[in-house]
TrEMBL record:
The keyword Hydrolase applies. Pathway: Cofactor biosynthesis; NAD(+) biosynthesis; quinolinate from L-kynurenine: step 2/3; Amino-acid degradation; L-kynurenine degradation; L-alanine and anthranilate from L-kynurenine: step 1/1. GO terms for biological process: anthranilate metabolic process; L-kynurenine catabolic process; L-tryptophan catabolic process to kynurenine; NAD+ biosynthetic process; quinolinate biosynthetic process. The modification N6-(pyridoxal phosphate)lysine is found at K234. One of its GO terms (cellular component) is cytoplasm. Its EC number is 3.7.1.3. Catalyzes the cleavage of L-kynurenine (L-Kyn) and L-3-hydroxykynurenine (L-3OHKyn) into anthranilic acid (AA) and 3-hydroxyanthranilic acid (3-OHAA), respectively. This is Kynureninase. InterPro entries: Kynureninase, PyrdxlP-dep_Trfase, PyrdxlP-dep_Trfase_major, PyrdxlP-dep_Trfase_small. Its cofactor is pyridoxal 5'-phosphate. It comes from Enterococcus hermanniensis. Pyridoxal 5'-phosphate binds at T99, T100, F127, P128, T129, D130, D208, H211, Y233, W262. Homodimer.
Length: 423
């Protein structure tokens, strides 16, 4: 898509005046003197999230155990609120667990190896927790990781080769697990193409949406994966460690969950506490233990904003803001040694820009001390996420100015190159 930008502050302010989502900045706790560019790692707190959390605390204070009379269905309620973000059926989505625990649950359910089909196909660029879970499950099934985990390696160390991935879907592959958006290079993969290829070969396929949901439009009615997992604290702004999401395709509702627990029991008999598990045949049947209600309440507040705005508008504004950032990098920063490692085309990139520099770690440290909050990923990437709901075009312009200043004044030289911080 062709866009026409200008390289001056007045133009950035004009873009803010034209941005229909600019008003939502007031819905978030923006800090004075700080430009927050790390929403791809942890989204900012919204006022709606805090209101819902405080309301839930009041319920605990006033109702005690009686609150469970409806909150035992809270994961299903939030799943229904979240389902439009991926265009899934309401009963195909539940809010439960963590990304990693949900991967374990899905793999325990769908990885049913045979003598002929026993391998799990993965890429070598995904966030490592996915690989840890895959290695764990094949070991529990009695296989050697070196034999049962098939890795389709990236040809360049930055992007997944989709055709190579499809060619790796051989007759010995039982299941495929892939990221929807790569956390480092922001590559948005063609989930529909990959799911179609897997299903044509009789292979189960699941996706990790952690760096996609809330930033890009996803259509699971068209894609029809078997399962998907995601966190809710990045673009969905659910808060630190907020409860994750799980999608189970309706065709699999009859499967018995591989990691059953009492919260996945049929709703009508759950509190009869029988010794025999009776599976609730929808996504909520994959819940295990009691839900973390306070870590879900914040998400309810955040999801109300997404219901109001809709993913179509959010994606459109996200693409504009990331494109503007890339334009400014091209115009103002390349002669300082900066580049970006993500693709330019809208159809193949997620919601963040992967700024690259040989001094990336020290530059990231300097940015934080100058009031810009990014994150760093090995070996040379500063991830910058202009969030559709709360990052302004003026802030994007200012961030680029600070990046230039850091090199001009050699501010980064004050910092050690030895990593010592979380971000």
């Amino acid at each position: 898509m062709e866009r026409s930008f200008k390289n001056d502050l007045a133009f950035a302010k004009k873009l803010d005046q034209q941005d229909e989502l600019h008003k939502y900045r007031e819905a978030f706790y923006l800090q004075p003197g700080e430009i927050y560019m790390d929403g791809n790692s942890l989204g900012l707190a919204s006022k709606a999230a805090v209101i819902e959390l405080e309301a839930m605390i009041e319920r605990w204070k006033k109702e005690g155990v009686r609150a469970w009379n409806d909150l035992y269905l809270y994961g299903e309620k939030l799943g229904k609120m979240m389902s439009p973000l991926i265009n899934a059926l309401p009963d195909e989505v539940v809010v439960t667990g963590s990304t990693t625990s949900n991967i374990h649950s899905a793999l325990a359910t769908f990885y049913q190896p045979t003598n002929e089909r026993y391998k799990i196909l993965v890429d070598d660029l995904n966030f490592p927790t996915d690989r840890y879970a895959v290695d764990s499950i094949v070991t529990l099934k009695g296989y050697q990781v070196s034999d049962a985990v098939k890795v389709a390696k990236s040809p360049d160390g930055e992007f997944i080769d989709e055709q190579a991935m499809i060619e790796a879907m051989t007759e010995d592959v039982a299941l495929v697990l892939l990221p929807a958006v790569l956390y480092r290079s922001a590559q948005l993969i063609d989930m529909k193409r990959l799911a179609k290829a897997a299903h044509e070969r009789g292979i189960i396929i699941g996706f990790d949406l952690c760096h996609a949901i809330g930033a890009v439009e996803i259509d699971f009615q068209a894609i029809q994966p078997d399962f998907a997992v995601w966190c809710t604290y990045k673009y969905l702004n659910g808060g630190l460690g907020s409860t994750a999401g799980l999608y189970i395709n309706k065709q699999h509702f009859g499967h018995t969950p591989g990691l059953a627990g009492w919260f996945g029991n049929r709703n009508t008999t759950q509190f009869q506490l029988k010794q025999t598990f009776e599976h609730q045949e929808d996504a909520s049947g994959w819940q295990s233990g009691s839900p973390a209600i306070f870590s879900m309440a914040t998400l309810e507040g955040s999801l109300k904003i997404f219901e109001e705005v809709g993913m179509k508008k959010i994606r459109a504004v996200s693409l504009e803001k990331t494109a503007y950032l890339m334009y400014l990098i091209d115009e103002k920063l390349t002669h300082y040694g900066y580049s970006y490692g993500n693709k330019r085309e809208d159809s193949v990139r997620g919601g963040h820009v992967c700024l690259q520099h040989q001094e990336a770690y020290r530059i990231a440290a300097a940015l934080r001390d100058l009031g810009v909050i990014p994150d760093f990923r090995e070996p040379n990437v500063i991830r910058l996420a202009p969030i559709a709901l709360y990052t302004s075009y003026e802030e994007i312009y200012q961030v680029v100015e600070v990046l230039a200043k850091i090199i001009q004044e050699k501010n980064y030289e004050k910092y050690s190159a030895i990593r010592s911080a979380v971000v």
